[in-house]
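Write out structure tokens for Cof-type HAD-IIB family hydrolase.
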Amino acid sequence: MNVPFRAIISDLDGTLLNGDHKIGQFTIETLSKLSQKGVDIYFATGRNLPDVKHIISKVDVKEAMLVTSNGARANFLSGERVISHYLPETLAFELMNLPFDPTKVCVNSYQGDEWFINIDLEQLKKYHKDSGFSYQVVDFSKHHGEQTEKVFFIGKTLADLQPLEQKIRETYGDDVYVVYSTPQCLEVMNKNVSKANALSELTQRRGYGLKDCIVFGDGMNDFEMLSQAGKGCIMANADPRLKASLPQHEIIGNHKHEAVASYLRAIMGII
């Protein structure tokens, strides 16, 4: 059967995952059918690898490509690590210890397969309830910068994070990639990192490029991969800044209704 794209690339939260932050059965069946027809499946997310491996384990695929921590790491499902870009240790430690209002902002890091945070924030656990992946509370002033894939700040509002963003860009702008995954989450990675950069390398290894792929996303950290894709689709629930920055891209349904799976079934010719 001829299908219009060699691969499907999707963000997870706010895109492929449903309103319960899980991969729905309709989506599982859709991706499994497409994989059986020879379509490659990629997840490209800000989540860490252990979290993502649990999600993809529900889909019937022989192989998949997992881009995690916004492109700081990339693995084939079979286990091969293709990309690994850490922040320099001294820089990571400095980022972890930037001053901010602790009543409005918290700091996190993904380091290796671990997640660290400066406070116990119960509401974050709902995003990872299905996988069981969770954080460890640490004092970052006594922590370390080893194997840091990203440092990220969660604020109550976008306005709470903007002074931090300005400080980071002014101080470290040439050495880091700074992006919002949601309007309340500011993320900092190595300067060479983005989902698109990682995906370009992975797709080349499979014998094609991003122009041969259909891509789905909802956040500013999806901008590059959406703009380079053969077809880029933006979720109805996406960050308004993403919609404004890619005005020619098609807007599809809401992630809560498993809109990615519905769209794929319509264009890929599966029932």
